[in-house]
Amino acid sequence: MKPLYLIILLALNAVWAATLSIYKSLEPYLEPGGIVTLRFGIAAVSLLLLWPWLPGDAPRGRDLLKTCVLGLLVFVLGHRLQVFGNHLSTASNSSILTATEPLITSVAAAIFLREHIGPRRMLGFALGMAGVALLNGVWRADFKWVSLGASVIFVSSFVCETALSVAGKPIITRASPIKFAALALASGTVANLLLDGGQTLTAVAHLPAQAWPQLLLIGMIGTAFGYAFWFQVIRESEVNLAAMTLFLQPVCGV
Q: Which candidate, 96, 103, 94, places its Cα nearest to that of 126?
């Protein structure tokens, strides 16, 4: 991986980690579906406005269909599960659970993309998980896990995210990563608007001013730029290598 890619990915992981706390701050004003609709709607509009200047070819044919299906899977189902699971839990507990995402992603990449995970990377994953446990003192008597149901709901969103990276990698080798992200976000946004667009637009009128910078941060930086850049990285690097940077999220999130 290029050193510049690594630096930017680490910065993006700090933004992605903050997303869980931002979700909590938006809960008094928006339903989980509304948060998802606004976040990914902002991202989709941002990229579609730039469409004439985006480099590369758009996915076509079966790749286009797969892109739209993946958009529905991740930006509708997956993130609604994530926001709802975070709603049932605490941002701190959810941050700890994000440590499972790189493991899920790497195992899937090894199975479906035939990526090799060498001893040093396996050691890196083990140290990452141990670091998360040490950071949060999960062995302490006063440490409280939330209910198993809330944890399963939250972690299941990572399965959807993993599908996007693993199934999307063959597509972005044939098409522009940023246009792949734009079309996946657009398909997810259309579905989100159909599900609860009216309710969300009504709630928008009552959002406090301080909510908008947070929405723009997670929508434009964390999503529009973040996902497009992630796909650019995994287009050139192994998915399991990029996934190791995700271990920064539990640290920053807590």
A: 103
